[in-house]
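Can't attach files on this board, so I'm pasting raw text. These are the components:
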Amino acid sequence: MAEAQTLESGESAAPSGYADTRTIGGPILSVENIVVKFGGVTAINDVSFDVREGEIRAIIGPNGAGKSSMLNVLNGFYKPRSGKINFAGQSFPAMDPYFAASNGIARTFQNIALFRGMSTLDNLMTGRMLKMKRNFFWQCLYFGPAQKEELENRAHVERVIDFLEIAALRRTPVGRLPYGLQKRVELGRALAMDPKILLLDEPMAGMNVEEKEDMSRFIIDVNEEFGTTVILIEHDMGVVMDLSDRVVVLDYGSKIADGTPDEVRANQDVIDAYLGVSHD
Amino acid sequence: MLYRETGQFKRNYAADQQLFPIFQDKILLGVILTVALAVIPFVINDYWSKAILLPFMVYSFIALGLNILVGYCGQISLGTGGFMAVGAYSSYKLCTAFPEMNLVFVILLSGGCTAAVGVLFGLPSLRIKGFYLAVATLAAQFFLIWMFNKVPWFYNYEMSQITAPPREMFGFLVSGPQASPTAQYLFVLGFLIVFTWIALNLVRGRIGRSWMSIRDMDIAAELLGIKPLKTKLSAFAVSSFYIGIGGALIFHIWLGTVEATEAFDILQSFFVLFAIIIGGLGSVLGAYLGAAFMALMPVGLKVVLVDGAGMAVDTAKHIEIMLVGSLIIFFLIKEPHGLARMWQITKEKLRLWPFPY
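---
Top answer:
Structure tokens for the assembled complex are below.
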């Protein structure tokens, strides 16, 4: 048997002959009975799930199912009406964006949210914001401690640039880059934060097959090489089934299934949610 | 060797991140500084000082400050005139209350006072954005000017017009009617050089990036761990600090006597805002180019029209207004991102010249 089975959940999504050397740890982040409402609309209704350290966790569901809202709850942009979030050994009624960022939750957006007027390098350096501590006085002087810190972080950012193969775009303002590369730079900005947990909101939306393959490769590499936990929203079922270890399925704000890709694929509720049911 | 980055290789990150990566830029800067420090002080006279160099330098300083707020942090402000008045009046109060205090400290402290006022009027920026914030800062403009006119404490219960008392630096008079143009010029130049350097350091480092991230996409910035209120208020503070120093310099050095409604009215706010829009938002060079355009163009046109073409002074004034207006329109159509961007594009073209593909 060449196939190493280290996944706790038993079944690996990887094709046979591929050695999965990752170790999946215990739950690093979990949500319990989260409810999010906007006025009278219930965006998320009583959803609970957990994310294990080192796994790729996918959240799928039809449009409007509450997937992006769920990510917004996880990094503190939305405050849930009830329920709690367990993270970093503590339990919160709502996450604080600053706490989330400083404890290693990074995120990309469905509609690219890069700093359009800044160069690729500056965008990635902004991802290092929390790692830079020098105060205003040293920033005014620049030379000395602030420069040292700047160069250390630059070296780190350069590793991310190498990893994502965007060295040629360093000085280009990101507003001028094509869509696929902007998505990649946005991933780079999140990676520059040294995240423990990476929230990816449709990283492959609107990409062609080659770009999707590139992006998939980057996500797998991040997960395997750096051990980063990935929470992924994606509509391309092929990608989701290939990449993820476990999948949560949301529909109209409620969780309808949770399990390995194969379990989810065979779940009748999921099939009904995606294909519809005949009411006769 | 041509003026371009091509072929000027950098071997470490420190060299890559220097302020002037192009070798010729350093030479150019050296020449400018030599002329400014070693030639102009010896040839300057009263006309050049009061009509050309002082306005250009002071408005560059103020434009630099406003550009930090509007260009880098993306918070539109129309309160510039009011903040200049805060700088002028607080330096007047400090100067008269503590006659022994060195003028440099007086001006720096009045910058600090203006920074505090700026932070106060910057508080609404967390809730309101864009044009609405512009209207809120307009309130600052009208309130502050009204206050300096109506509260006699600010002008020491004398006339509402305040006059700068004579002060010395290193034994040379720099403020008051007897001050020599050379001393005044060098005094302002010192401020300009030091604070331009500080502004360059701020905008290329962590703080500058946090300002720009708030400008470009505040939601994403927040999720990277940038605190929006703190960042916006720091931009208001730094910007008002510069504008306050600028106002104090206008009062002490350039004009000597000011009256709040005349010297710091709403037109000043627009003047500086136009300067940075024409010069280039989000660029230190743009602040200089914009200030040069707005402050020097009228003087240049007057010289050409009155002295050169022999026109009557008031005819020339009207033609000047029309010409400046149409030049603003021309530049904004030609390059909406300002003169600094034109320079940037020229540099990019030179990279491949003479064989662009």
